Amino acid sequence: MNEWFLHGDYGAVPTNYIALTIALLLAFTCGHAIAWMYMFTHTGLSYSRSYVNTLVLMPVIVALVMMILANNLVLAFGLMAIFAMVRFRSILRDTLDTAYVLAVIVIGLACGTCKFTSAIIGCLATLAIMFYFWATAFGTRQRYDLILNIQWVRPAADLAQLLQLLHRHSRSLQCASQRSNEGYAGIDLSYRLLLRDPARAHEMVEEVRALEGVARVSSVHAGDESEL
Is the N end or the C end of the chain the one with fewer CB atoms within 10 Å? Predict the structure, then answer.
């Protein structure tokens, strides 16, 4: 039974079962490491357990495919024909998720071609870059600290008093919107503020609320800008 199992492959190129085992185990380990990094650094609402499982399984499958092909051109064309019949309808909302998929595919290719050292170095480099992106928040931009919405019921010519107050508390001020509403004498204003001291934002809001002519005030703390 063992003799038949160990010599059960009748391909043109004999199978190196030790190399196959090492390739699959290494692909599984590297896939696990990248999946853990994804779980640790992921932010947002698009988290999926099945996607994490895919990051672990995909390099193993790719490594197995490469070992089966073993430089056989006929098998390669047959594999392309099989994959042509399969349609993947999963849509990755985050471009970084696509990078994770490409990373595990390349690591699987390295394992499947018995380039084990390259697979290990590539996995470590990928993990280091992903951790760097997460630790440094690379690519984020913070243009303002607070969004202030005000209903102003005095004439627009009297806005100078409000602007003076806002300039006193902020380093940068931008009027995002100014809209006059029908039915009442008032203006809805929305400002984006980069505060001098974000910890004193509530003091500024209270001063604005106490200002004559302000009917309603609401504020929203702005985080890092993110793409929608």
Answer: C
What sign has the CA pseudo-torsion 98, 103, 108, 110? positive
| Mean pLDDT (whole number) for 42-69 | 82
Look-up: residue for tokens 């106490």?
210
Residue whose structure tokens are 């990373």: 103
Name the burial class of residue 188, with classes exposed (0-12), middle (13-18) and buried (19+) by CB atoms within 10 angstroms of its CB. middle
14 burial level (CB within 10 Å; 0-12, 13-18, 19+): exposed
- In this prediction the pTM is 0.58
Residue 121 and residue 52 in contact, taking contact as beta carbons nearer than 8 Å: no
> Tokens in use for 223?
């985080």
